[in-house]
Amino acid sequence: MNAMINRQVIVDNLPAGLPEASNFRMENGEIPVCGEGQFLARCLYISVDPYMVGRLKVSSAAYTAGVEPGDVMQCYTVSEIIESKHADYKVGDKVYGSYNMQDYAIGDGSEVIVRVDTDLLPLEAWQGLMGMAGQTAYWGLETIGQPKEGETVLVSAAVGSVGSLVGQIAKARGARVVGITSSADKCKQALETFGYDAAITYRDTDGRAFTPTELTAKIKEACPDGIDVYFDNTGGDISEAAWPLYNLRARIIICGRIAVSHLKPGEPDIGLRDQGFMIASRIRKEGFLVFDHWHKAAEAVGPLAALVKEGKLNYQTDVMEGIENAPLAFERMLRGHNVGKQIVKVA
Amino acid sequence: MNAMINRQVIVDNLPAGLPEASNFRMENGEIPVCGEGQFLARCLYISVDPYMVGRLKVSSAAYTAGVEPGDVMQCYTVSEIIESKHADYKVGDKVYGSYNMQDYAIGDGSEVIVRVDTDLLPLEAWQGLMGMAGQTAYWGLETIGQPKEGETVLVSAAVGSVGSLVGQIAKARGARVVGITSSADKCKQALETFGYDAAITYRDTDGRAFTPTELTAKIKEACPDGIDVYFDNTGGDISEAAWPLYNLRARIIICGRIAVSHLKPGEPDIGLRDQGFMIASRIRKEGFLVFDHWHKAAEAVGPLAALVKEGKLNYQTDVMEGIENAPLAFERMLRGHNVGKQIVKVA
C-alpha cells in the first residue's frame, strides 16, 4: 500500500479520434483531507466504460461536463472507506461511485451509486454487473425495451459488458435473444457463455463489413419472427440493417454509438432515415443514459443477484493490474479487445 | 339525387410518383343491396387525406392492404343512412366511416369511426376536425407528445389539416407553439388564423429550400427555449434541421413524410442519423398512425367540440363540388394547394 502517495491518471491531451493510452499521463497528487460529513475512500477497482469517450470531447453533443488537460480522468470505482467523519459511512464500508482515476478521493455520499455487499456477490461483480453495465442493461430493458415472453430481442455488441447482460436478462424474461458481434469467436461465446439463441457477425471472416442489405438478410435468418426489441449499442450501419425487420410496436433502446466513434466532432452521421419504418410499424425509439437511473440503482441489485444465484446470469470480468495501466485498459476496451467487463485492480 | 346510379371513382393505374387525377377514372356501378344487420349509406362528403398515397403503392412499407387498378378508391366519407336493417342505425343517421369513393355503400357498423352529431358541430366539421385530421392531432399529442404548460411545441406542415389543429390544441394546453410552413402567406395564416406564437418558412421567397444549417438557425430563433415536442408531418430535411435544438426528454411524433414523397418505391431516404442526439437528450420518438386510435375516436369528440365553443379552435374546410372532382381534390391536397381541410361535397 502506497499510503503516502495519491497516484492519479491525468488527462494529458484531448484525442482527435478514439482515445488511446497516450492521451494520459501519471502524476502523484496530494492525499485529500477528510472534513466533517465526509469520508476518505481508497480505490480498489477502476471501471473503464464507453461513456468516458464523451468526457474527453470539447464540444459536440456531450451530455455532461467533460475533463480538460490537467484534470484527473473521470471514472467510477469500487472503493473502501478508510477514514470517516460521516454518520452513514464507517471505515471498512465499500461503495461504488464516482471517485475518478486516483488512489484516494473524498466523498460525502452524494457520489455513491450503490453500497457494495460482498455477501451478495464478490467484489469484482460490483463494477460491471451491479455497476454501469448491469444497471444499463437492467433499466434499458425495464423502462424502454420491456420484452414480453416469446418476443425476439436483438442485441448489438452482444458479448460486450452491457450486451452480454441484456441478452441474459431478456432471456430470463422468456424472450428469444439474438446477438450481433464482430467475430465467429464472439458468436461462439454469445451462444455458449451468454445463452443467446442465435448469433451472427456483422462482417465476414476476412473482416469485410457486410452491406446493410447483406446484414439484413443475415439478421432475418436469425430472427424469423421479426424483431420486437432492439438494444442498440452500436448505431451506424449495423442498426440500419435492422430497420426492415421490426414488428408492430417494436421498441428500440438507443444506448451506444461505438460503430460511428470514428466521426470527428461536428462530422455528421449520415445514413438511412427511419421515419417510414417508424410510422409503418409504430415503432418507439428512445435514447438511454444510465445516469438517469442511478437514483434507483439499489433496486436492481436484488433482481440481478437473484438471476446469478439461479444460474441464469453469467458475467465475466477482464482484470488488468495496476492504476498505471488504466489508460491502456480504456484503450483496449474501446477497441473491443477485452473479454468480459474491463476493470483495473488498483489495490 | 341520382337515385339509380352509383358513381364510383375507380383506380385506373398506379402512380409512379405522387398520385394525380389521371390515375383514376369514373364508372357507374350497381347500387348495393342491404342485407340483414346492414344498412345502405349515401355519401354526402368525401375526405381526401395523405395516407391514401400509401394505398396506391404495390410494395414498399405499406401499412394496410392497398387498392389495385379496377378497385373503387378507398377513402373516408360522411354518409347518411337511407335504408337500414341494422338495429343500432336508423334512416337519417349520419356516420363518418370507410365507405370509399362512391355514392352508395353497404355498412354493418364495423366501419363506422364516429356517429355524426350536427347539434354539436356542423356537417363539414365531421370530416376534418372530428375525422382523421382532428383525431390525428388529438391522439398524437395525447399519447406521444404530451405537451406541458410552458413547453415549446414545433409543428411542420403547420397550417395543413393536421398541423393547424395540433398547434391550437397544444396552445390550449399552455404550450408555446411554433409552425413551419412553405410560404410567407401560410406563415401569416399560422399566426392570424391558427394562433401560432411564431411561424417560419422552410424555403426563401424565391422558393429555394434552406439548407439544414440555415433552417436550424431559423428554428432556433423561433424557439429560443429549445424544442420539447415536435409534431413531424413532413420528414426529410425539415425534420433534420430540428435535431440540434431538442431539450432533455423531448418527444417526437412521427406522423407524416410528405417531404420525401418524391422517393420511388425501394429508394432509400438518406439523411442525418439521430442516435447521438437521442442519447444526449434522451429523446423519445414514436411512429403514429391514427388507425390505432379509431376505437376511441368518440372520446375526442367532446374535448374538440369544447375547444371550438371556447373559441380556441379554428378549423377551415376547402370544399370542392362533385364526386367526379374527388381525384382532382386529392391531387390538389397532395400538392398543398388547399386552404384548410380538403373535402368533396357529393350530395
Description:
Two copies of one chain form a homodimer. Chain A folds into two domains: 6-128 and 315-345, Medium-chain alcohol dehydrogenases, catalytic domain (Quinone Oxidoreductase, Chain A, domain 1); 135-291, NAD(P)-binding Rossmann-like Domain (Rossmann fold, 3-Layer(aba) Sandwich). Chain A has nine helices and 16 strands. Chain A has helices at 52-55, 132-145, 163-172, 184-192, 212-222, 236-242, 275-281, 297-309, 326-334; strands spanning 6-11, 24-29, 39-47, 76-84, 94-97, 104-107, 112-115, 152-156, 176-181, 198-201, 227-232, 246-254, 270-272, 284-287, 317-321, 341-345. In chain A, the strands form three sheets. In chain A, strands 3, 4, 5, 6, 7, 15 and 16 form a seven-stranded mixed beta sheet that branches. Chain A has a six-stranded parallel beta sheet with strand order 10-9-8-11-12-14, with helices on both faces. The first copy, chain A, has a two-stranded antiparallel sheet with strand order 1-2. Chain A starts with 5 loop residues before the first strand and ends with a strand. At the A-B interface, strand 13, helix 7 and strand 14 of A face strand 13, helix 7 and strand 14 of B. Strand 14 of chain A pairs antiparallel with strand 14 of chain B, so a sheet runs across the interface.
Brief summary of the model shown:
With 347 residues, chain A is an alpha/beta fold. Chain A has nine helices and 16 strands.
CATH topology of the largest domain in chain A: Rossmann fold
Straight-line distance between termini of chain A: 7 Å
- Give the largest interface pair and sizes: A-B, 36 and 35 residues
Structurally, the number of domains of chain A stands at 2
Compute the number of strand runs of chain A: 16
